[in-house]
Structure formats: structure tokens, C-alpha cells
Amino acid sequence: MIHRLQLYQGQQGFSLLEALISIGILSLLALGLSVLVGSFQGSLQASEEKLSILELNKVLLSISGGRNICAKDIIDNPTSYTFPTATFPPANVAVKSLYLSVGDPNALAKENEYLSSQSSVRVKTMSLSGISGTANPYYGQLQIEFETKKTSRKPLSVPVVVLTNVVAGNTIIHSCFVPADMGSGQSGNPSESEALCATAGGDWVEPPSPRPAFCRLSNEVIEWH
Known about the structure:
Elements: H1 2-62, H2 71-76, E1 82-84, E2 92-94, E3 97-98, E4 109-110, E5 122-132, E6 138-147, E7 156-167, E8 170-177, H3 190-199, E9 203-205, E10 214-216
């Protein structure tokens, strides 16, 4: 009887050890799975953030040159676009919102707001910068800075043409738009396209015929050609 009891107790001890080992293995597997899921979700969000910014870039670059994307903001914030002629052009012009038109209810981008209800990318600041020239048309860049949750993103830089009026000693910006043709020379003036490309900080590329010349801005920006 004593022998059988000792054997039974030994078997119970071994089973408990197995259970503890199994629990440990399951805990490690659960931890590994949790890390894997977290990593996957992080990669997914980082991809979503990049796609959101690229989508905005794509929309801006595809807009016809006749779209005054600053029009509504100029109406809402006229003093932000008015400068003494003697000091024009300024280093930066703050932009609060971008719309396809004054009557469009949906903004392309707004300061301190997310790019969309599904996006985790918030617009931090927007500005017209690097404006150059001595008379209409002026050339510059639309700079958009973002706040993201997963990975930092470089500001989006899009070339723009800026048009102004001079009234009572002040220069007033009344239009800003993305050039309709940045590289193909379809307007009949390839040299102007090359100048716009240089103003935007891009590289003018002339590949072998029959492919037309184009402006390459960065590895993340679609080439115009």
C-alpha cells in the first residue's frame, strides 16, 4: 500500500510539471503571436499613412492648371495673402485649407485635420514657400507637413504657380495652382517646363526618343511626362 501511494504521488508530481511546462510554452506562443500581430498592425498603419500622403500628392498633381486650390482660403483669410509690394514675395505664406473650388464642400487638406476619416495622417502645417520672380507669374512650392503615428514623413512639396494683383501699394495673391504641364512641353515651351522643374527642386530628365522629357521630383513622386 505504501509503495502504491508513493508511485501515485510521483505520477501526480510529473503531471503537474508537464502542466507547468505546457503553460509556459503556451505563454511564450501567445507572447510571440501578440508581438507578431502588433508588428503587422504597425506595418499596416505605416503603409496606410504613406498611401494617404501619396494619394493627396497624386490628386494635387492631376489637377488641371486652371484649378485655384487656394481660392476658398483666400476668401476666408484675405489678410494672410496681402503683403506690402516693397517686401513681396514673402518667405512663406500660411495656408489653412485647400479646395478644388470655392463651392466644393470637401477639402483636399485642412490644417490640424486628418486627410480623411479613415486616415491616421493629420495635416500639421501648409504654406506657399520659395516664391520667386519679379512679376506674374510667380513660382514656388506648396509645402505640407504631416503628423503621423507610426513613422515620420517628409513634407510633401508640390510646385505651384502664384498669381497676384497690386492694389494701393499692396500685392495680393489671388490664385495658386499646380501647373498643368510640368514636363512634356505640350504647351509648346519645353524650356519653360524645364525652368519650372528647376524651381520645384526637381531633376530634368531627357530620355532617348520617343519618350518625352520629364521632371523627376523624388523617388516618391510620380513622374510627369
